[in-house]
Specification:
single chain, globular, Rossmann fold, 6 helices, Jelly Rolls, 3-stranded antiparallel β-sheet, 5-stranded parallel β-sheet, about 25% strand
Length: about 290
């Protein structure tokens, strides 16, 4: 675009957004309730503006209403988009929960410290020159959500897979609008981090069910089951799920283990800081490259 001034219009109040100019972070917008205009001064000449949502669906949904050019100017065609696409299905690690936190204890304040742009998922996609979609909710698991009193939950992550917005069960996503080349599933931490854990059979059936949802949406395509080293039992179950898929004839399911970041790379509630997210991405990228020959 080329304009001396622009205004971004949001109807929100629950979420924060990154504003990049030519790849450099200009500012963060913390929206306030109602329809509000947020002024941006991009500088002279042609500029490319990128707006990314920092906060995940746990904070609620917001509406981006467009761009206003109060002092004139023009919007120009965008450059070609990457042809590669990766979908990520996950929980708080994928969302980027607490990845800019000041310490392990963030005092119950999370919105300012969540930056989904710098979770391992979009970091991985950018390293592979791919677009990414993240379908992720903090605290949710494959069959059991964090802290549930039962070994399974009524509303685990797969329930939300086909939704456009988390809180709207009647607003279905059109899976043909954006078809990925591969899908990465990182779920299971919330299933296993508190008691009572689901049995191995129940958890693995949940993973199989989610894989079936993905295959029903896109057909058969490469699926990476991802686990970090913090929960050996989860690693074993994801490996078993992968082998069972292969025994059933689906050789497009792969297992990837990454190293859980050390405490020096952890932020709010022991979640990875940006440095820890980057470290996980550094291990995931070559695994995807090898399998997909990218």
């Amino acid at each position: 675009m080329q304009a001396p001034q622009l205004e971004l219009l949001f109807n929100d109040g629950k979420n924060d957004y990154n504003i990049f100019i030519d790849g450099q972070l200009l500012k963060t917008i913390s929206t306030t309730n109602g329809t509000t205009s947020y002024p941006i001064t991009p500088g002279s000449g042609d500029r490319r503006i990128l707006v990314t949502k920092r906060t995940g669906p746990n904070f609620g949904s917001g509406r981006f209403l467009g761009v206003r050019l109060p002092q004139g100017g023009q919007l120009k065609p965008l450059p070609a988009r990457p042809t590669r696409k990766i979908e990520f299905i996950g929980d708080s690690y994928t969302v980027g929960y607490g990845n800019e936190g000041p310490s392990l204890n963030c005092g119950g304040l999370y919105r300012p410290y969540e930056n989904s742009y710098l979770s391992f998922a979009p970091i991985t996609a950018r390293a592979l020159n791919a677009e990414s979609h993240s379908i992720a909710i903090s605290g949710f698991g494959a069959v059991r959500n964090y802290g549930d009193a039962n070994p399974t939950s009524a509303t685990p992550m797969p329930l939300y897979y086909g939704r456009t917005l988390m809180e709207h069960g009647d607003l279905n996503w059109n899976f043909q609008a954006w078809v990925p080349n591969a899908v990465v599933i990182k779920l299971g931490t919330n299933d296993h981090s508190t008691e009572p854990q689901p049995s191995a059979d129940v958890f693995i059936r949940g993973i199989h069910g989610l894989i079936t949802q993905v295959n029903n949406a896109y057909g058969y395509l490469p699926i990476f089951l991802m686990a970090d080293s913090s929960l050996p039992q989860l690693v074993s179950r994801m490996q078993n799920a992968t082998q069972q898929q292969r025994n059933m004839g689906n050789d497009q399911v792969h297992f990837v283990q990454v190293t859980h970041p050390p405490q020096s790379q952890l932020g709010c509630d022991w979640h990875p800081l940006v440095s820890g997210q980057q470290a996980m991405a550094n291990e995931l990228v070559p695994a995807i490259k090898s399998i997909l020959s990218w």
